[in-house]
Amino acid sequence: MNADLQAQLDRIADRLGISRGMTPGATAPRPPVRPLATPTGRSIEILIPGQEIETPHGPCFVREVVYPGSTLRSRYALAACLGQPLDTLAALYPEANLDNFDFARAAFLDTETSGLGGGAGTYAFMIGVGVFEPSSGPPVSQEEASAPAPPAFKVRQFFMRSEREERAVLHALAGVLDAATGLVSFNGRAFDLPLLTNRFIMHRQTPRLTTAPHLDLLHPARRVWRQRLPSCALSSLETQILGLRRDQADVPGWLIPSLYFQYLQTGDAQDLVGVFYHNLEDILSMVTLAATLTRLLADPWAGETIHALDMAALGYTYDQAGRPAEAERAYRDALSHPLPDDVRLQTYSRLGQLLKRLQRLSEAAETWQDWITHVTRSANVKDLEPYVELAKYHEWHANDCTAALMWTRWGEHEVEAWPRSPARREALAGLQHRHERLQRKLQGKEGA
Fold it and tell me: What's the rounded Cα separation, in Å, for the pair 176 and 49?
């Protein structure tokens, strides 16, 4: 983080009497009540380009920002997610009801709240919603005149200037959500949507989109990138996957509740400029992340080279989604590149089991032999798998009990090097039982 920005954040935190090491999920402490004083030129209406709108429940403040669908962000235009297939995600997350999901009619939702832990006392003081809308205005080039412009992306940020405006904010929000047929969020299934549902109910309004198709980008992002990244937070994905950098206007999420409570006490909106920016960037990044994920899952071999760790994770993702051809290709692709031993072991295991399920047993046997050859052996119970599988294959499918006994003995040799433990005793007992049975089979054949 830029040193000047860090110093600015430290000064704000000192003024609010908080520290960066607040307990995760804790609600920011409310500052002591002081007489309301709105410094000239520092009210929300002056600092943020927006408008006050009237609702049956009073006024609230709304900021609108519109981007052409062709706006480039990271590698893709904002409209790049439109029309992308979601069959893999639909198979992975049947509870999300994504079979008929349409990005063009979805609401990209993100909230800024009075606390990070949820609960009855937590509310959303800012609710950002982005939607695609038909572009307006004449084409600016001959090329655009011959082809329809992609839909524009409009973001509305509903803001509570005081706690009395919550009912008005929810009413205004409902008008936007009612036009949507689905939701896109980042951790919204666990946090944003339940929070808003509770607030709608508390204000005797009908909750919106509670059963609508809901693509929560956090879960597929974890599937694909958690083996490589220490964190799959949206900020981490922005920098590590999307290649985006926020400017100095941003503020960290842990500080946002305190900034809002400070605003409620003073009326000074200066520090909230960064909160509006933070919320807007979260929504735009969700659009870009949606395009990145859907295009990657549709065909990871169509674009730039994929990191081997990500390819291994994609193999398992396809495997779980019932796409064996893509799973096999991804597993083999990953194994053709350097991998950490634990990931290589896991990938060989998954590929071998996939081929076994497909009844391609000779290829599965080759995979188990490659596993033994190319993975550094360690004191790990899972290392026993290729020896047992090869023994089974040669005994029951290749009808070669001599080879089956050889693999069993090799497995025994490996297990004997393990530290003494219940797992070691159990593994040895199983191998010795197999060893004795194979010997009896061989002796029977010799006696015959």
Answer: 20
